[in-house]
Amino acid sequence: MTDYGHELRFGTFLTPQNADPQASVELAVLTEDAGLDLVTFQDHPYQPSFLDTWTLLSYVAARTRRVHLSGNVLNVPMRPPAVLARAAASLDLLSGGRVELGLGAGAFWDAIEAMGVPRLTPGEAVDALDEAIDVIRALWDTDGRGPLRVDGDHHRLAGAKRGPAPAHDIGIWVGALKPRMLRLIGRKADGWLPSLAYLQPGDLGRGNATIDESAAGAGRDPREIRRLLNIGGRFTPAPGGGLDGPPEQWVDALTRYALEDGIGTFVLATDDPGTIRTFAEQVAPAVRDAVAAERATSGTAAGPVRSAAALAKRADGIAYDTVPADVTAVEPGDRAYTALRSTYMRRGAPGVVLLPRTTPQVVDALGWAREQHGPLAVRSGGHGISGRSTNDGGVLLDVGALDEVTVVDEATRRVRLGAGATWGKVAATLAPRGWAISSGDYGGVGVGGLATTGGIGLLGRSYGLTIDHVVAYEVVTADGTVHVVDAQREPELFWGLRGAGGNLGVVTWVEIEAAEVPDVVYATMTFDASDPVRLVERWSRTVRDAPRQLTSFLHLQAGGGGRQPLAQAMTVWADDDTTSAVTVLEELLGAGPVLDQRASLTPYSGVVGPVAKHHDGGAPPVTRSGLLPTMTPAAAADLGALLGSGEAGLMQLRATGGAGNDVAPDATAYAHRHQELVVSAFAGRTRRAGLDDAWDRLAHPHMDGLYLSFETDPRAERLLDAFPPLTLDRLRALKRTYDPDHVFDQNFPIDPRG
């Protein structure tokens, strides 16, 4: 007996006839409605009575929601593999991860040649399919770097760019009968897809043996390779030959194929709706039950198998096999890992990424993570400039799935935000009510990070920091306890979470009182930054003297290499009084030589709108940050000198005065309530020492404090810049109460021991 323990799947093998184009589409929809798992279509591109299979798959993907889709099998000689790779990945992304690739080396060569494709010998066709698989996998591998080269005799890549990556691990299933093709499957494919009608007794066993031997020789576990089988037959009252007979006969036969020949997927070739329904309703459930019962008795391990290559990528000190069953875990080598490993600016290599979907799952994930070796990072959105929401070799707890945005109280505009939501989603959800929450300058920023650090945004001078409007948090502390805190319940923890939350626990949701915000005027201005000293001084003075409705951020880019020094101001006038807006914006235009200007009246969601997260950061960022009480001529001169030194390629100034400074310094753990500007510098060179030296000289006479989210200097004295002494004493006391073992030690660690 050969049972590979694969989860059983059932599907249909349909004819893509074009006499009635919708007929095969309706059969695909029926397949899904009946509860089956897979829809496949023949692929004969030279057959004029058939629809084109890939076009049909795309159409069916739009008509269905759950079933997986595949050609059975696609004619590779007529479908260039590089194009096929991108088509499959694209359809997989559009369909939510429902595409598989059944591939064939080609048959009916007279018809293929008649379509203008050069004839291949059987051996050449196998070689071409072998190379095609390499091309497809290479283009899907977006985790690699640099252009791609595949030097084959039939298929090549000569510097192609990678991507797109599919939404899930697309299975490459190969239709094959002969030993050479079977050995190819063992080395490279994810599945074997023969047709029962072409098999002789014993062929399944012999084929499995050949595949398994080849897999073992390639360092693979044979269980990695799914065994599929195209089947055919009729449901009849009386037993007959083959599968022809009553459903009970089918159940017995398919159960034997699953337990004795390792078949994990049965694909029924039929275009009859009644046969599909009977197969789905009477055969598939009974086979699943029979196989499950036998596996329970025999102790056969069931479920997916991790490849030897993937196992080799596991980090030392992490007990992967003990991850809580209710928590999704993504490891190096998994398709989803590439999209999760990095942040906006830092390319990470965590040993495992945990993806809880509920607060109890956060508790389970955190408890397990505490027992593992290596650092623990917590992520909400991953856009933070500091790059601390990933790591190398440790555990990353990603709460991105906790992304609900719910109105709790219409009268007080109280809104509950999941920590994994993005501010773009929040803004879009609140816009129809005319509400907004000040929240940075980019819609991809996560709620959890910004709402526990401060929240300096483009409504800041009008409405203050994000944390100033927080009324409650739910947080999981280091011991796994869930706390709901506010001004009455654990007020000291509530105080600490507003400014130092990353040191105190994993926030799962936050409740905030939104503001009534009419349409705002959003303006962008591009300046010639050849004289950065004059520009920053005039811009800062104009913003400082402007009404609180105006908040502006200024981004300056050093010139060099033939590039002109440029600056861009992003400005929001938080009012729909366009007449007053024009007056103030005209003053701001006087900050420097204007190269471009645009302004529009828009809801706040038009400023901070929803964006897709595609984080693939590079080297760890080198940034420095400081809080400037006010812009002086000396500070402007030193900032201009830093930008011109080559040590800083980019500089950002964010206005943070106004309403944020109305709050008492001891009201929250973010105590910086008299400064007018946040200044950040990004290294123009790869080494950090140059920027550190230059910034340290600048900061001493001008800066007073720093904003954690923009700082990457790991030196201990930065903690003293972030938190004044009295604030730091209170935070250390909180750490001794809620995190005495210093579990949360990655985000500017506050040692409870002092």
TrEMBL record:
PANTHER family: BINDING OXIDOREDUCTASE, PUTATIVE (AFU_ORTHOLOGUE AFUA_1G17690)-RELATED (PTHR42973), FAD-BINDING PCMH-TYPE DOMAIN-CONTAINING PROTEIN (PTHR42973:SF39). Belongs to the oxygen-dependent FAD-linked oxidoreductase family. Residues 345-517 form the FAD-binding PCMH-type domain. It comes from the Bacteria. The lineage of its organism: Bacteria, Bacillati, Actinomycetota, Actinomycetes, Micrococcales. Its cofactor is FAD. The keyword Flavoprotein applies. The keyword Flavoprotein applies. Keywords: FAD, Flavoprotein, Oxidoreductase. Signal peptide: none annotated. This is LLM class flavin-dependent oxidoreductase.
